[in-house]
C-alpha cells in the first residue's frame, strides 16, 4: 500500500467527486472520513471562487462565461467569416444572421455601407455588376463623368426601349410581307 501526500489525497477526492461518486463511496475508496471530504470540497470551492474573482478582475469586470450566440456571431464576423458560415456554425436562421451582420456594420461604423444596403436591398447584385463594368472600363477614375452619363442614360433609356420595340415590329412586318410575296 502506497502512502499519498495530502495534495494527492485531495486531488483523488476531487476526481472521485467529479465522477459523481457519493461521500460514502469516496470515503471507502480514498480511506478518508466524510467530514474530511466535506472540508476538501469546501476548500476547492473557495479556491474556485477566488480564481473566478481574479479572472473577473483581469477581464475588467466582465465575467469569463460562455459567449451567447449574438456575441459569438459578432466574434465570427470580426474574424472574417461569411454570413452563411456563421449561420451554420451557430444554427441561426436567415433573418437573424442578416440582422447580426448588419449590426456588425453599425458597430464598425460602416453606416454608409448599411445605408447603401438599405436603399439598394436585394438589388445589390445589379449594383455590383454595374460597378464592375464601370471599373473594367476604367470609368471609376472620373466618377462625376460616370454619374453624368448614367443620369442622361436614365432619360434616354425609355425612349430607346420604345424605339427598339418599334423597330422589332417593323422587322416582323417586313418579314411577314416577304413571306406573303413568296
Summarize it.
This protein is mostly helical.
Detailed description of the structure:
- The structure is a single chain.
- The protein is an all-alpha fold.
- It folds into three domains: 6-58, Arc Repressor Mutant, subunit A (Orthogonal Bundle), CATH 1.10.10; 67-137, no CATH class; 144-182.
- Helix content is 77%, strand content 0%.
- It has helices at residues 6-18, 23-30, 34-58, 69-78, 83-90, 94-107, 111-120, 124-136, 143-181.
- Helix 1 (6-18) packs antiparallel against helix 2 (23-30), helix 4 runs antiparallel to helix 5 and helix 4 (69-78) crosses helix 6 (94-107).
- The longest helix is centred in the C-terminal third of the chain and has 39 residues, at 143-181.
Let me know the largest β-sheet. Answer: none
Number of helical segments with 4 or more residues: 9
**What level of helicity do the residues show?**
over 70%
Could you tell me the strand content as a percent range?
Answer: under 5%
List its salient traits.
182 residues, 3 domains, single chain, mainly alpha, Arc Repressor Mutant, subunit A
SSE inventory with pairings:
Layout: H1 6-18, H2 23-30, H3 34-58, H4 69-78, H5 83-90, H6 94-107, H7 111-120, H8 124-136, H9 143-181
Helix pairs in contact: 1-2, 4-5, 4-6, 5-6
Amino acid at each position: 500500500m502506497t502512502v499519498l501526500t495530502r495534495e494527492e489525497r485531495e486531488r483523488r477526492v476531487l476526481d472521485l467527486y467529479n465522477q459523481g461518486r457519493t461521500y460514502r463511496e469516496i470515503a471507502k475508496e480514498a480511506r478518508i472520513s466524510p467530514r474530511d471530504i466535506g472540508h476538501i470540497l469546501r476548500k476547492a470551492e473557495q479556491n474556485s471562487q477566488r480564481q473566478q474573482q481574479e479572472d473577473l478582475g483581469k477581464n475588467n469586470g466582465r465575467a469569463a462565461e460562455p459567449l451567447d450566440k449574438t456575441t459569438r456571431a459578432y466574434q465570427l464576423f470580426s474574424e472574417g467569416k461569411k454570413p452563411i458560415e456563421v449561420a451554420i456554425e451557430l444554427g441561426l436562421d436567415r433573418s437573424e444572421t442578416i440582422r447580426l451582420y448588419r449590426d456588425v456594420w453599425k458597430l464598425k461604423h460602416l453606416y454608409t455601407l448599411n445605408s447603401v444596403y438599405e436603399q439598394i436591398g436585394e438589388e445589390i447584385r445589379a449594383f455590383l455588376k454595374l460597378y464592375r463594368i464601370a471599373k473594367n472600363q476604367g470609368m471609376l477614375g472620373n466618377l462625376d463623368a460616370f454619374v453624368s452619363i448614367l443620369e442622361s442614360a436614365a432619360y434616354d433609356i425609355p425612349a430607346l426601349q420604345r424605339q427598339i420595340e418599334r423597330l422589332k415590329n417593323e422587322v416582323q412586318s417586313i418579314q411577314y410581307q416577304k413571306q406573303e410575296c413568296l
